[in-house]
Structures are given as structure tokens and as C-alpha cells.
Automatic annotation (TrEMBL):
GO terms for biological process: translation. GO terms for molecular function: structural constituent of ribosome. Residues 139-161 have a biased composition (Basic and acidic residues). Keywords: Ribonucleoprotein, Ribosomal protein. The keyword Coiled coil does not apply. The gene is rplQ_9. This is 50S ribosomal protein L17. Residues 127-178 are annotated as: Disordered. Gene3D superfamilies: Ribosomal protein L17 (3.90.1030.10). The lineage of its organism: unclassified sequences, metagenomes, ecological metagenomes. It comes from bioreactor metagenome. Belongs to the bacterial ribosomal protein bL17 family. HAMAP family: Ribosomal_bL17.
Length: 178
């Protein structure tokens, strides 16, 4: 049975695992996007998101606590200057995992992990379709009244065109017979 085993050990000792997650978290904060395996990304998500939450409050204690996890001054500075400013209003979910397929050598499931607020392409796509929509139940009567006349109008417009085309060859056929 698997009771109380929440940590994925990733086939490493605890010291190796902590060092690896620390380095990956520093790389994610500095570069805003990293490529890794899916299992490592899921483990990293649980490691780095509490650090980002802690960075929202810029105090000496917060900086020291984050540094004890990251062990990288540049990453701590980038976290408190750049990242915490962008995620100030977000209530969690600071990272995104995008699957990229399997690795060629060992068929491991690969992914790209990124900080959500730093992908300009997705932010632009999200801001563009802000058309105002209203939700109505069972369709309004106005919509059915408007849509019914449009269809016969379109049919009547097309019908004379077809008749005109068909009349001309008919006149030519009568001339050929005589």
C-alpha cells in the first residue's frame, strides 16, 4: 500500500534531490522557462510555488527563507524584483507545465515548465478575445424571428439568378431547333 508517500523521490537520495530541485528552481526563476521530464516538473512545482508565494512579501525574513531553499543570490534578487511584481494579484498557480512529447533515448515524457505571467504569446491571446457575451436561457424569441426571414430572402435572391441562366440556354436551344 502507498499510505503517506506524497514525495516523489525521483530515484535520488534526499541531498541529491534537494540540490537538483534548488538548481531547477533557480533556473526557472532566472530563465522563466525550462525543459525537463514531467516527473521532475511536477516535483519542482511543489518546491517553487511556495517560494513565489513567500516572495510577495518583501522582508528580510522572506529573503532569507527563500535563499535557504535556492542558495543562489541572483535567483533570489530576480524572484523578489521581477517575478513577485507580476504575480502580486495571482492567488496561486504560478507555473504551467506543457507536455512536449517523449524523449528519443529512453522515451521519458518531456515537458516545458514556465512561469505563467511571463509568456507574452499566451497573454496576448488571452487578452484579445474579450468580446462581451451574455448568457440567456433557451434562446430568445427575437433571435428566431430574425433568423427565419433571412433564409427565405437568401433563397429568393439566388433563385432569379438560376432562372436567368437557365432562360438563356433555353432561348439558344429554340433557335437551334428552328
Amino acid at each position: 500500500m502507498r499510505h503517506g508517500k506524497k514525495v516523489n523521490h525521483l530515484g535520488r537520495t534526499s541531498a541529491h534531490r534537494k540540490a537538483m530541485l534548488s538548481n531547477m528552481a533557480s533556473s526557472l526563476i532566472l530563465h522563466k522557462r525550462i525543459n525537463t521530464t514531467l516527473a521532475k516538473a511536477k516535483a519542482l512545482r511543489g518546491y517553487v510555488e511556495p517560494l513565489i508565494t513567500r516572495s510577495k512579501e518583501d522582508s528580510t525574513h522572506s529573503r532569507r527563507m527563500v535563499f535557504s531553499y535556492l542558495q543562489n543570490k541572483e535567483a533570489v534578487v530576480a524572484l523578489f524584483r521581477e517575478v513577485s511584481v507580476k504575480v502580486a494579484n495571482r492567488p496561486g498557480g504560478y507555473t504551467r507545465i506543457l507536455k512536449t512529447g517523449n524523449r528519443l533515448g529512453d522515451n521519458a515524457e518531456m515537458c516545458m515548465m514556465e512561469l505563467v505571467d511571463f509568456n507574452e504569446n499566451m497573454l496576448a491571446a488571452k487578452e484579445a478575445p474579450k468580446a462581451k457575451t451574455t448568457r440567456r436561457s433557451r434562446g430568445a424569441k427575437d433571435k428566431t424571428a430574425v433568423s427565419k426571414p433571412e433564409k427565405p430572402v437568401a433563397k429568393t435572391e439566388e433563385a432569379p439568378k438560376v432562372e436567368n441562366v437557365s432562360e438563356e440556354p433555353a432561348a439558344e436551344n429554340t433557335e437551334n431547333k428552328e
